[in-house]
Amino acid sequence: MNTSILRGQNIQDFADQNTLDTFENCVKHLIKLMKTFLQLIATPFLALVLLVSNHHLLSQSFSIEVDGINRAYRMYIPTGLPPQSPLVFVFHGYSGNAASIENYSEMNRIADENQFVVCYPQGLKDQWNNPFWNVRYSFHDTQTVDDVKFITTLASSLQSTYNLNPSQTFSTGMSNGGDMSYLLACEAPEIFAAIAPVAGTMMEETFLLCQGSNPMPVFKIHGTNDDITFWEGDIEDNQGYGPYLGVMTSFQFWADQNNCKDYETQELPNTNSSDGSTVTSLKYSNGTNRNQVWLYQINNGGHDWPGSSGNMDINASEEIWNFFQLQLSERVITSTDDENKSHTIEAYPNPFSSSIRINYHVIDKAFVSVTIHDTTGKEIITLVNQAELPGDKSVMWNVKNVDGFKMKSGVYFVRVESGSKVYSQRIIYTID
Question: Is the pTM of this model over 0.85?
Answer without folding.
Answer: no
